Amino acid sequence: MSLWEFFVAFILGMVEGATEFAPVSSTGHMIIVDDMLLKSKEMLSEPVANTFKVVIQLGSILAVVIVFKDRFFNLLGLKKRTTAHQQGSTQLKLSVVIVGLIPATILGFLFDDYIDEHLFSVNTVLIALVAGAVLMLIADKFAPKYVQAETVDEVTYKQAFFVGLFQCLALWPGFSRSGATISGGVLLGLSHRAAADFTFIMAVPIMAGASALSLISNWEYFTPDVLPFFIVGFISAFIFALISIRFFLVLIDKIKLTPFAIYRIVLAAVIYFVFL
């Protein structure tokens, strides 16, 4: 592979990792960086380019698993309960996470083909960028005065289910999973940090499942000539997602969602006026 191809793999992995879990829409950024600038589908066949995007998404998912490894060990019963839990404090239950996953899982299964055919266009992504920004502004403006769940351990089944309904908005490319679910969580009485933590934890099974199915159906494209491209992108996405997630979790309770909403509107304007 050429040096340019390695550079493209690195940049795409960086963009995916840096934006996948921030509420700014990784799809919108990919439109600018890949579809309009780097054009990886011109150096790779379209199926291989699409498979590559699944691979780098797995790099981002692995970063979430690393950041929340103790949470996942607890959820799966692979780690002893903490002293605080033994003294009576609650901890997030796997069943609460499952309840949050139900709406988007069902809707995604039913409308996956429709979404692929009708919602993956620059115009629909632009609309989703702005619509998601509006929801985030609404969440910051009309958040309940009293937080009902300061930490993710206090999320109830009811809150989990309705956050899951908000997650369905993320099936619309460009809306942003974290933007939709954090906004929904805040409107439902979660703190910004609790909503972010719950968003990231929910994202792992639903994204990993969808990515695994996609990889199984596209396994034939893992050929020796493109494997280095895939590996570079995966590692890049993992590293930058790790940095992005840790940075975002420190910031979210301090700056809330409004700065990200403004950024999304500016991004949509750039795509519209510069690239269309």
TrEMBL record:
Membrane-spanning regions, if any? Answer: 54-73, 94-112, 118-139, 198-217, 229-250, 257-275
| Protein's UniProt name | Undecaprenyl-diphosphatase
Under Enzyme Commission nomenclature, its number is 3.6.1.27
User: What's the stated role of this polypeptide?
Assistant: Catalyzes the dephosphorylation of undecaprenyl diphosphate (UPP). Confers resistance to bacitracin.
Q: What keyword terms does UniProt attach to this protein?
A: Antibiotic resistance, Cell membrane, Cell shape, Cell wall biogenesis/degradation, Hydrolase, Membrane, Peptidoglycan synthesis, Transmembrane, Transmembrane helix
Q: What class of enzyme is it?
A: hydrolase
Entry coiled-coil feature ranges: none
| Pfam (any one) | BacA
Its localization reads:
Cell membrane
| Catalytic activity entry | di-trans,octa-cis-undecaprenyl diphosphate + H2O = di-trans,octa-cis-undecaprenyl phosphate + phosphate + H(+)
Q: Which HAMAP family match?
A: Undec_diphosphatase
What membrane topology term does the record carry?
Answer: Multi-pass membrane protein
Molecular functions (GO terms): undecaprenyl-diphosphatase activity
Entry-linked NCBIfam families: PRK00281.1-4, undec_PP_bacA
Q: Spell out the family assignment given in the record's similarity comment.
A: Belongs to the UppP family.
Q: What else is known?
A: Bacitracin is thought to be involved in the inhibition of peptidoglycan synthesis by sequestering undecaprenyl diphosphate, thereby reducing the pool of lipid carrier available.
